[in-house]
Amino acid sequence: MTRSLTRTFAVCALAAAAAAPAFAANDLTGTTVAIDWKFPDSTTTYATNSVVVGAGAEVSCAGGSAGTGLCVGFVDAATIDIGSQSLSLTIDSGTAAWNTAAFNGYEFSGLSAGGAWTGYNLATTFAGLDSSRITFTPDAVWVNMEGITPDAGESFTISLTAVPEPTSPALLLAGLGAIAWLARRRRA
Predict the structure, then answer these.
(1) What distance lies between CA 122 and its chain's CA centroid?
(2) What tens digit of pLDDT does each residue of 120-131 get?
(3) Could you tell me if 69 and 78 are in contact, meaning their C-beta atoms sit under 8 angstroms apart?
(4) What are the respective helix, strand and coil percentages of the chain, to the nearest 5?
(5) How do residues 34-90 score in pLDDT, each as one tens digit?
(6) Is there a contact between 93 and 76 (Cβ–Cβ < 8 Å)?
(7) Burial zone of 146 (CB within 10 Å; 0-12 exposed, 13-18 middle, 19+ buried)
(8) How far is CA 150 from CA 6, 34, 93, 124, in A?
């Protein structure tokens, strides 16, 4: 009886562990991500920069008239940071403004090198920036900043969500099958 109870407990523990959501080890760290400033529409690249994702900000704009590339539009300081599973832009000082156009914002592409992404969550303090201004594919995210004027300290972060590992459902089925087998054996 004790041996049977121990087996049943072990199989139930295995099934419970298999039922817990496991996520693929998606991680952008060490991958190359392209950041394109798109203006005046989503197909025209105004400036571009490819970055290798690592610790700290991937793009730091000092502000002023000397800005080039992705920084040319920032009168004041701003940073673009790509984390292991996130994309962020922070206005460090002063204000910024994205002029009115069909599209005036950023495309972050090459994201699939970091894993299989299925969606995103947006956290922002930019007035007017919401999910209607975000376009998502598993390899790229477009953020339309058109007409937005954030102040110092304001930011947005897009957290990418991952696909559950395919082994999780297989483990769950194996655990349930083992429980069924034990129950059937017990009745016999």
Answers:
(1) 9
(2) 999 999 999 999
(3) no
(4) 25, 35, 40
(5) 999 999 999 999 999 999 999 999 998 887 655 667 887 677 788 999 999 999 999
(6) yes
(7) middle
(8) 61, 24, 10, 10
Nearest to 39 by CA among 104, 99, 97: 104
| 96 CA to centre of own chain | 24
Residue 34: strand pairing partners: 50, 109
Nearest CA to 12 out of 178, 135, 160 is that of: 178
CA separation, residue 2 to residues 8, 146, 187 (Å) = 10, 68, 16
Tell me, what DSSP letter sits at residue 163?
Answer: P
Distances from the Cα of 72 to the Cαs of 9, 26, 45, in angstroms?
Answer: 63, 32, 13
Q: CA-to-CA distance for 28 and 7, rounded, in angstroms? A: 41
Q: Where are the domains of the chain?
A: 2-22+166-187, 32-162
Which pair of structure tokens corresponds to residue 41? 């529409």
Q: Model confidence at 29, in pLDDT bands (50, 70, 90)?
A: very high
pTM of the model: 0.74
Q: Are 72 and 17 in contact (CB under 8 A)?
A: no
* Cβ atoms 87, 132 nearer than 8 A: no
Q: Which two tokens stand for residue 91?
A: 């206005």
- For residues 86 and 157, the answer to whether their CB atoms sit within 8 Å is yes
User: Tell me, what's the pLDDT at 34?
Assistant: 95
| Secondary structure class of 21 (helix, strand, coil) | coil
